[in-house]
Every structure is written in structure tokens, then in C-alpha cells.
Amino acid sequence: MKKTCIVTGGSSGIGLSVVKLFLEHGYQVFNLDLQSSEFGVFCQCDITNIGQVSQIIDDITKQHNIDALVSNAGIHLSATIENTSEDELDKIFSINVKGAYAAVKAVLPNMKANQNGAIILISSEQALVGKPNSFAYSLTKTALASMAKTTALDYASFNIRANAVCPGTIETPLYHAAIDNYCNQSGANKKEIHQEEAKLQPLGRLGQPEEVAELVLFLASDKAKFITGSLQVIDGGYTTQ
């Protein structure tokens, strides 16, 4: 019988790489996203709508046991606390944190009933180190790291594992959008900024979404059955500096 994985935000970037890799390894994958995708079973979903998330996942669990949840949906915001409006704070918190809360809460009854499950939250290196001009984004990603640790402790007795993956600078559409936004505001040269970002990483390059997906797959597998409550950093050595 195929294992089943739910991925939020699986239509682009890291999420899309996760969906593709899990499919390659024989999983049935459900992708909850607003943007459609040809990969996996697409379920159009507003991740900030708790009722909608709960209903979609409830419908899935009527026919499938959930082996893994990858909570990946998220947005970025470059701003200091003074330059972050209340509306912007509400938006990024709703997508990055509330969306994860909704998905995790919805899969837990099924995982508890089956005494099995792996929850992987896509956090960030910013759960470990601070970065300038990143008040709200860092706030939400730190919250996800905390969510992984508390969920791991609360549900260990049900053989449910929860871990956070903390990527560094990964070359995704989200990364390119952030660089484009910075260049548009500052007049900087995108190629030069891209090169500078690569130089900031001890390994001298940016990470790729496929590399993050490999770590996620490992954490969902039985090979990681003694790993829970951890923050798994994949950042080319950035946070060791």
C-alpha cells in the first residue's frame, strides 16, 4: 500500500521539489495550494482558512492514513519592525504560522489513531540566527521551530514525530522575488547581488530546493524514526559562522 503525504504550498519552490521527490519514492501526495500544479493530487486551498484546511484534510483521511505532513506554505517579507504594518504582520503570520497550525492540528487525529506519523515544518536558518531587515519573517519561522519542538513532546507517546527543517538561502522563486524587490528599491544589480549572496555561504553557493527535499524525505522515513523535536539545518554552513 502506498504511503500518503500531505504537502502545503507544494506548487513551487521547495514544496514542489518535495512533492516530486515523494512521488518518485512511491508516495500518494496531496498538494494544498492556491496555485495549481500538475504534480500530485492538487487540492485548491487557502492555507489561512482553518475550516477549509480541516475539511480538505478530513476528506483525505476518510480514504487514506496520513504518514507524513510537510507544512511548507509561506511568504517572505523584507522589513524592519518600524516598516512592518499591522496588515503585513497579520498576513505573514496567517500564512506562515496559522497555516501550519491548521494543517498540523488537522492531521493529528488520524496520526494518533494509527499510532504513526511524521510532521515536518519548513522553518528557516533564521530560527537560529538573526538577520537584518527580516523582523516578521524571522518571527514566524522561529514560531515554526517552537511548534516542532512542542508537538514532538506532546505526541511522542503516539509515535508521532515532529521536526523542523531550517534552510538557509535556497534558490527558489521566493528567493528571486526577494532579490528582485531589493534591486527594484535600491537600484542594485541583480547578478552582483546574486553573486554576493553565494559568497556569504561557506560552501560558496546557494542551496537548491531539491537538496532540501532530500532532507525532508529522510525525516519522513523510518531511517529517521528516532529523530523528533529537532531543528535540522541545511544552510551551507551559514549559521556556523
CATH topology of the largest domain: Rossmann fold
CATH architectural designation of the largest domain = 3-Layer(aba) Sandwich
Helix content: 40-55%
Portion in strands: 15-25%
Could you characterize what this model shows?
Helix content is 46%, strand content 15%. By secondary structure, the chain is an alpha/beta fold. It has 2 domains: 191 residues, Rossmann fold (3-Layer(aba) Sandwich), CATH 3.40.50; 36 residues. The protein has a 7-stranded parallel sheet, sandwiched between helices. Helix 1 crosses helix 7, helix 2 runs parallel beside helix 3 and helix 3 runs parallel beside helix 4. The longest helix is centred in the middle third of the chain and has 29 residues. The chain starts with a strand and ends in a 7-residue tail after the last strand.
Features:
single chain; 241 residues; alpha/beta; Rossmann fold; 7 strands
Short summary:
The chain is an alpha/beta fold and 241 residues long.
